[in-house]
Amino acid sequence: MLSPGWKGWVVGNVSIELTCVWQPAAMTPAEQRIYDLLTALSEAALGLASSAVFLARPSDGAEYGLKYMNDVLNMTRHVEALAVAVLRHSGVSWDALASYRGISRQSLHRRLAQRVDAVTDLSQKYPDMHVDRAYQEIAILKRVIERLDQNLEAELEKAAPEWRRRVHKPGWWWQVEAE
């Protein structure tokens, strides 16, 4: 089965260089909009996942959280807006979304409508970039998860005493932020 590779198609372990840009089968404008939204959502969700997996690293995950938690939270809101955009362009009403969440339609619409419009517009501009970035995020996730899978317990054993030693280093967290 053919699957998109980094710079071409991959058939098993054999890479075939691209001689043209892959285009999905002819789509209606509405289908193209959803396709572009889905590529942006894939990129954003994989970016969020790769950022979140860094928090699981025993040696520096908490430092990562200290430095980048606001970025991770913003990424979460971006993923939420893209997911809602896909649902909205697939025919799900604001009422149905709000009912599912157990909040009022007005509250949900007020909080998300402008972001949904903005991410929809942005997703239409660079769909190929979203696909490329999604593959980059997959590669990052694979490496970090593989490292965690091989070394998690050993890293936990080494990290616990180190984190405890930091209690005796006043202001260590400000030094982390400055690095």
From TrEMBL:
<feature type="coiled-coil region">
    <location>
        <begin position="131"/>
        <end position="158"/>
    </location>
</feature>
<keyword id="KW-0175">Coiled coil</keyword>
<protein>
    <submittedName>
        <fullName>Uncharacterized protein</fullName>
    </submittedName>
</protein>
